[in-house]
Amino acid sequence: MTAEQLKIKLVAYIINPLMTLLLAVAVLVFIVGIAKFIRDLSSGVDPKEGKSLMIWGLIGFVIITSAIAIENSAIATFNSIFTSTL
C-alpha cells in the first residue's frame, strides 16, 4: 500500500465518519437545548441551561462545518498540485 492509498483510506474511513459523528452530536445538543429552553419557559424557570446548550450546539456546528470545508479545500488543493506536477 502506497502513502497515497493510505491517506485516502485514512480520510475515507476515519476522518469523514468522525466529522459526521461530531456534526450529529452538535445538532443533537442544539435540539436538546431547544427542548430544555421551551420546557423551562413553560414551567416558569429561568431557561439559562437551554440557552447555553443551544449556543454550544451552534458553536460546535460552525466549528465542525468549517473543519469539513477546510479539509475539502486542502484535499482539492493538494490533489491539484500533485496531479499537475506529474
Short description:
The protein is mainly α and 86 residues long. It contains two helices and no strands.
Helix content: over 70%
Largest sheet: none
How far the N terminus sits from the C terminus, by CA atoms, comes to 19 Å
The tally of strands reads 0
Amount of beta strand: under 5%
Please give the radius of gyration in angstroms: 19 Å
Order of helices and strands: HH
Mean pLDDT, as a whole number?
90
The backbone outline, from C-alpha atoms, is elongated
The domain count comes to 1
Structural class: mainly alpha
Number of helices: 2
Parts with pLDDT < 50 across at least 5 consecutive residues: none
Characterise this structure.
- This protein is mainly α.
- The chain has one domain.
- It contains two helices and no strands.
- The protein has helices at residues 3-43, 48-85.
- Helix 1 (3-43) runs antiparallel to helix 2 (48-85).
- The two termini are 19 Å apart.
- The model has no long low-confidence stretch (mean pLDDT 90).
What are its keywords?
mainly alpha; 2 helices; 86 residues
List the helices and strands and how they pair.
Blueprint: H1 3-43, H2 48-85
